[in-house]
């Protein structure tokens, strides 16, 4: 079974993080929500509290994909966490999937992960996508890097994750099951 870690910090955009978790789980992917805050209870950007599964310190094995939801100040916490930066670089260098939505692709830009890649992000963060060509669509996929624009593109983002971890057919099946774009 494919596995994914979704990293959460106080101030994360709840819809972006939870849509990815929900749709991936519907697709049969093993998803673990990971806190970088030193506690499992996280409060999102809209003051919605969420309990994560584990702390980043408790990660014992690698995952097929690492996912960063956006939101503020959550993205700043993700950017500043040295342990997460090391995990992201290791994952990317191993040719494994990394994905981010909204403001969070800026974390990839800061780490040099976007060099020579097409990427998208929340409007106003384009200058932080260091080395990237700014795309036009709702989701950009280059090599093993996936980026997306924001809350309004969360379903497209999650479908792109499913398509890469499984296949397009499964992504379409999940979108149909939730009556998306019928």
Topology:
Blueprint: E1 3-8, H1 14-26, E2 30-35, E3 41-43, E4 49-51, E5 54-55, E6 65-68, H2 74-80, H3 82-93, E7 97-101, H4 105-111, E8 118-119, E9 133-134, E10 139-142, E11 145-148, H5 154-165, H6 168-177
Parallel strand pairs: 1-2, 1-6, 2-5, 6-7, 7-11, 8-9
Antiparallel strand pairs: 3-4, 10-11
Description:
It is a single chain. With 182 residues, the chain is of the alpha/beta class. The protein is 34% helix and 23% strand. The protein is built from 6 helices and 11 strands. The protein has helices spanning 14-26, 74-80, 82-93, 105-111, 154-165, 168-177; strands spanning 3-8, 30-35, 41-43, 49-51, 54-55, 65-68, 97-101, 118-119, 133-134, 139-142, 145-148. The strands form 3 sheets. Strands 5-2-1-6-7-11-10 form a 7-stranded mixed sheet, sandwiched between helices.
Keywords for this entry:
182 residues, alpha/beta, seven-stranded mixed beta sheet, 6 helices, globular
Strand tally? 11
Instruction: Work out the helicity level.
Output: 25-40%
What fraction of residues sit in β-strands? 15-25%
Task: List the secondary-structure elements in sequence, H or E.
Answer: EHEEEEEHHEHEEEEHH
How many H/I helices? 6
Q: What does the largest sheet look like? A: 7 strands, mixed
**C-alpha Rg, in Å?**
15 Å
**Coarse shape:** globular
Structural class: alpha/beta
Give, in spatial order, the strands making up the sheet with the most strands: 5-2-1-6-7-11-10
* Separation, N- and C-terminal Cα atoms: 29 Å
Low-pLDDT windows of residues: none
Mean pLDDT reading: 97
